[in-house]
Amino acid sequence: MLSTTCAIMFGIPEILILLLGILIFWSVANFGKNTSLGFWSSLLLAIFTTPVIAFLIILIFFRKK
Q: CA 35, CA 48: separation in Å to the nearest integer?
């Protein structure tokens, strides 16, 4: 009983961190969808760099359509 409770408790923070990461990646991709990169290229840029660096690259180098 105790091991099951501990396994559930220790899994919740990891799931929340994963969901937060997905939300951040989606936000950067959504920000870049109206640029010359588009949604999917912005998402790939965020995955291969970091979301912060991808956001800055999109903000500085790629203008809105």
A: 18
pLDDT at 2: 52
Q: Which domain holds residue 60?
A: 21-65
- Report the distance separating Cα 58 and Cα 61, nearest Å: 6
- Please give the C-alpha separations between residue 49 and each of 6, 11, 13, 28, 46, in angstroms, as whole numbers: 34, 27, 24, 12, 5
In a domain, residue 59? The reply is yes
| Cα gap 25→55, rounded to integer Å | 10
Domain-embedded: residue 42: yes
- Distance, in Å, from the CA atom of 31 to the CA atom of 10, rounded to the nearest integer, reads 33
Averaged pLDDT of the chain: 85
